[in-house]
Amino acid sequence: MRQGAEFDRIRAFAGAVGATGSDIQTVVPPGDDAVAFRLPEGTSVVLGTDVSVEDVHFRRAWLRWEAVGYRSTAAALSDLAAMGAEALGVLDTLALPPELETSVYESIGSGVGECLRAAEAALLGGDLAQSPGPVMIDVVAIGSAERPVSRGGARPGDELWLTGSLGAAATAVADWQAALEPDPRSRRAFERPAARLQEARWLVAELGVTAMIDISDGLAGDAAHVAAASGVALDIDTTAIPLAELLTHYANRDLALNRALGGGEDYELLLSVPAGKGDDRAREFENRFGVPITRIGQVREGEGVRWLGEDGSPKQIDADGFDHFGPRR
Amino acid sequence: MRQGAEFDRIRAFAGAVGATGSDIQTVVPPGDDAVAFRLPEGTSVVLGTDVSVEDVHFRRAWLRWEAVGYRSTAAALSDLAAMGAEALGVLDTLALPPELETSVYESIGSGVGECLRAAEAALLGGDLAQSPGPVMIDVVAIGSAERPVSRGGARPGDELWLTGSLGAAATAVADWQAALEPDPRSRRAFERPAARLQEARWLVAELGVTAMIDISDGLAGDAAHVAAASGVALDIDTTAIPLAELLTHYANRDLALNRALGGGEDYELLLSVPAGKGDDRAREFENRFGVPITRIGQVREGEGVRWLGEDGSPKQIDADGFDHFGPRR
Asked: B33 or B320, which is more confident?
């Protein structure tokens, strides 16, 4: 390996990632032109990707570099979770301005490593470039699945379930934007989102999941994706949607609900399962993973998403998901 | 799919990429949380990645957007070529400032599609984000190989061969930096580098290649990588190195040579083959692919790269490869 600042930074980053507990056996390990490895027998390759751009997805004033590394990795791994895939590893591409010291690469790598250890996934390579401006981190997650689950398999009669609770991470963003220090619970939700990899594989194996999506762009927009991809309509009971504990104290329930539905940044899973499959097993899921799972609606023939209020009548919601080029941010 | 400016841009980009002639059968097609597909029986996954950053790797004043798309794709595919892999597809992540119109996405996509058609590889997904500053394109190339070729297999006694000729693309960069309009041949070499995918697979199958690398960072630096990874020394005859035709007119042969060795941007292949394997087949390779292949040296026990001049004696060269954070640019 050549000497030079570029390789010092690569070494600092990879060294800080450290051992991750992955048991992947590479045929050609990282450090060559490309990385090569075998997949488990009988499985498909599953590839998800997620880019984080400074001042678009995060601000330096909000986050420590460890959190930037952790979040970017979790976002890509969450795409694998949504397919019911096992995570094998990630490719991390970093573009940072030259004035950032080697210690920044170590801090980002430390966060990446923390997230990879939780997933038992390996750092498989990537690229490093100078940025003339913002920090950018592009993470590609590589996994495998015998039967990858798409968004497109929801069938009329299925039930809709949701892992976790919504709105904590978006509350941190709203607080930062208002120059407030977020509640530690919402800060943590933003800094250390969990990719629900093990949870998803259990759900696929035990409940016969028909469609699944991660709702990182907000439940409102992502539910619409499931409806469109599956060619069905979804009825979602807004009174059943589990709000993050700190949102339950809001006097204005609609404000809390809109943040939970449209705020995004929650790496939870929305899934459809055959009717009756979930009720018996929800307690077992919660005991096993320490994460709630809630039935929030059902699938019927038709199209689009219908939101239902207190009395089961249609309810207007003011949340349409995150569009990076839209007017919302 | 939701309406909105983000999806308009994704559609414009993917539409302009168009059909690529890939026969990949996806299990879950692009547009879901992640893409899923099967590999050919008995092969490894091979993953290469290459990021292009505006004002670091290219300037808008130099290139049309089509060329930005083409180059970024060729760079990632070239990593697969260096492993002797077959290209299956790419993930393209784009971060562009919001003032760039949808037509820019179409132009970039058109260049990406042109390059993918040459490789018969598919657009398998990616991500799109706003950039507060420079344009960034991160391309991950996905391929498969029964026996991926690393940099680490060169053995004493092997011969070193090089595809193509060197220095044309770096001459375009030097001209632009001097505010000169490049010769059309060097402009084309920079804008439309070829990923030597088919050539590499033929070489692996027919010549028993022991090590291979793409020399996008310059022959000087990349030859050193092969020596270090293989634990051998390389002797390279500088008088045998094929210079781009426009460099052969330079009065100062050392300037031409240093540009060819250190300029980078040539996506040619350096490979080692068992002694005698190449001589019989070089003509056949050139006839088949319309690309020269030249024996430039040999492998011996030891370490590092020794450059040899006219009389076979050691020659000092002033080229050490491209370091994005180094002093050279």
From this structure: B33
Distance CA A33, CA A30 (A): 8
User: CA torsion angle for B46, B51, B52, B56 (degrees, to 10)?
Assistant: -130
Q: Nearest-CA neighbor of A23 among A145, A120, A141?
A: A120
> All domains of chain B, ordered by start, with CATH?
5-145 (3.30.1330.10), 159-308 (3.90.650.10)
**Cα–Cα distance, B174 to B167 (Å, whole number):** 10
List pLDDT tens digits, range B116-154: 999 999 999 999 999 998 999 999 999 999 999 999 999
Chain A residues whose beta carbon lies within 8 Å of the beta carbon of residue B154: none
Residue range B267-288, pLDDT digits in tens: 999 999 999 988 889 999 999 9
Secondary structure element (H or E) that encloses residue A256, with its range = helix A253-262
Rounded to an integer, the average pLDDT of B83-95 is 96
Is-contact B65 B100, C-beta < 8 A? no
**Cβ contact B38–A49 (<8 Å):** no
Of B133, B214, B228, the CB nearest to A33: B214
Q: List the 164-203 stretch of A: residues with Cβ below 8 A of B.
A: none
CA atoms within a 13 Å half-sphere pointing along the CA-CB vector of B174:
17
Task: Say which DSSP state B176 is in.
Answer: H
Residues of B in contact with A96 (CB under 8 A): none
Distances (CA, A) of A228 to A49, A296, B122: 22, 18, 24
